Amino acid sequence: MFLGAIFGRLQRDADAPVLREIRGGEIASVTGGELLRMVAQAREFIAARGGKPGDRCVLLAPNSIRWVAFDLALLSEGRIVAPLYTRQAPGELAKMMRDAAPSAVVCADLSAEAEIRKCWPEAPAFVALDAAFAGRAETARPPESPAATQAASDPVKIIYTSGSSGEPKGVVLTAGNFTHILRCTNERLDRLMSTNRREPDGIFHYAPFCFAASTVLLYTALSRRSVLSLSTDLTRLSDEMKLAAPHYFLNVPALLERVRRKTEESVRARGRAVAGVFFRAQRSYVRSRNAKNNPADAFWLALAQWFIFPAIRQSIGANLKALICGSAPLASETQLFFLMLGIPVLQVYGLTETTAICTLDDPYDFEPGRVGRAIPDVEMRRAESGEILVRGPNVFAEYWGKAAETADALKDGWFHTGDQGEPDARGNWKITGRLKNLIILNSGHNIPPEPIEQALAAAVPEAQHVILIGNQRSFLAALVAVPAANGAGRDRVQSAITALNAGLPHYKQIRAFHVIPQPLTPESGLLTAMGKIRREAVMAHFAADIERLYRSKSG
Q1: pLDDT digit string (tens) for 463-479?
Q2: Is position 94 within any domain?
């Protein structure tokens, strides 16, 4: 099982760095042997507090070396780990904790206890993470491999879904789920790094470990010859990434879109000559991908590749062999932008319920705009409704304590994802939207909002989010979040909508819009912890604005 593979790798690299923490521009690292001693130290702490295998433990702390050591210690003692996001509201945390019914809550900051107890007075004991490492690690008993006691069916994690609609559910993932996924991720990364095996993989990571994709990346990094650098300050993400100088790292589309916009802005700032070459080369590259290039395209591309692209690649990441992207669809224009610079963006599609992965791009055989083919031993098919169904060893065991919801999601051995998609002739999937997001106008037209939202967001770079609305209405409208928007900003939104509507059938055209001048945040309850829109919450929060919008157009 996967935990034995991780311990074996740490033992082999006992004297080599395996994990690093970046704080204030400084790097602290541990070797495989040091991490094993920290795990042993934490295991003694856990054993001294009592409990038994199968007990749940909430881990509420930001990413750190100690977080990793304590997580491995809990798993080694047979405990089920429920990692939670520190930035979520105390009320939401209390709901998930009550659902998990943990024997203890381990947190980085005990000040969180008072606020959570206001919502859940019966909460169990809160324990400071640092307390597990108060003694000397050298005195801890030698680590024991847990492989002999770990069965494929053993639950190891309860990861709560982001709750973009409805209540979050605890997804139970097993040792077998992670073992299969790590086999697939290691195979893909071996292909990516095949020409670079003299040194360990350099990996950078910033997303909290309470998410399934982050967990998979962590366990993959620990199971292979690599050095994982943990970011600890999102406000210094760019500086920390440069300090880590990784070969690859996991991204969300919003970050890549932001990098693309800033790069294009910096090119424009270098003057008309440089900008002219860059944007001509960009158009030439897109035409060449579509086999519609003209004789001048080769010249502009060669010119940009000679004196513009290398500097941009250096600024993004000197050692980058690829960027890995998941959590939401990535605009094909952005994927092509990075590919033009010589940085492949490999897409991953999956849900918490599929241990984060169903498809994973092959580094040498992928199609921009699609998320790749199903990973080995995993089946994917399209239902008549367009919904993607998944079956395989990556599919979760159950929703914790929710038999009815589990039965509704798992039917005849197939997990119903709620996502809509379609494969091409080679089996490469394109994700087209979420069934629950489908807008049905009162004319009967069914409209998936995501493609239109993505197109409008691309046309208004300053827009933080675009939310299409119109369910059971006579026409579509849009909420556009443009922080600190002014009159000029509204004019740009109107111009972009006018241009977009020109290429759409009448029932897909946006007839009205409302600009939201403040950012949407997880703290406001309008975004999930991963930055996804909570559509029902947004609709409720802006209900009065939406009603005024439709009254003004129908009056």
Answers
A1: 888 999 998 888 999 99
A2: yes
The alpha-helical segments, DSSP class H, found in 419-534 are: 449-459, 487-501
Does a structural domain hold residue 393?
Answer: yes
Residue 470's SS3 state is coil
Joined together, the tokens standing for residue 300 give: 């502009």
- Here the tokens at position 43 are 């295991």
How many alpha carbons fall within 13 Å on the CB side of residue 258? Answer: 9
Q: For 397-415, write each residue's pLDDT tens digit.
A: 999 999 999 999 999 999 9
CA neighbor of 114 nearest in space, from 50, 526, 105: 105
Dist. CA 229–CA 241, nearest whole Å = 9
Nearest CA to 17 out of 3, 2, 35 is that of: 35
* DSSP, residue by residue, 525-553: TSB-TTS-B-HHHHHHHTHHHHHHHHHHH
Pair 334, 448 in one domain: no
Rounded CA gap, 154 and 76, in Å? 12
Q: What is the pLDDT of residue 149?
A: 66
Question: For the domain that residue 543 is a member of, what is the CATH number?
Answer: 3.30.300.30
- Strands 410-411 and 379-382 come out as unpaired
| Domain final residue pick, 239, 264, 281 | 239
What are φ and ψ of residue 519, in 5° steps? -70, 150
Six-digit token string for 164 = 């973009």
Q: What is the four-CA torsion angle of 78, 79, 82, 85, rounded to 10 degrees?
A: -100
Helix (H) or strand (E) holding 266, with range, is helix 253-269
Tens-digit pLDDT profile for residues 488-523: 778 889 999 999 999 888 889 999 999 998 888 877
Backbone angles phi, psi at 157, to 5 degrees: -140, 145
d(CA 219, CA 6): 7
Query: How many other C-beta atoms lie within 10 A of the C-beta of residue 4?
Result: 17
Q: Does pTM surpass 0.85?
A: yes
Mean of the per-residue pLDDT values of the chain = 90
Q: Using CA atoms, how far apart are residues 34 and 66, in angstroms rounded to an integer?
A: 11
Give me the domain span that covers residue 541: 438-554
Residue 196 phi, psi dihedral angles, 5° rounding: -135, 35
Is 520 part of any domain? Answer: yes
d(CA 322, CA 362): 11
- CATH number of domain containing 56: 3.40.50.12780
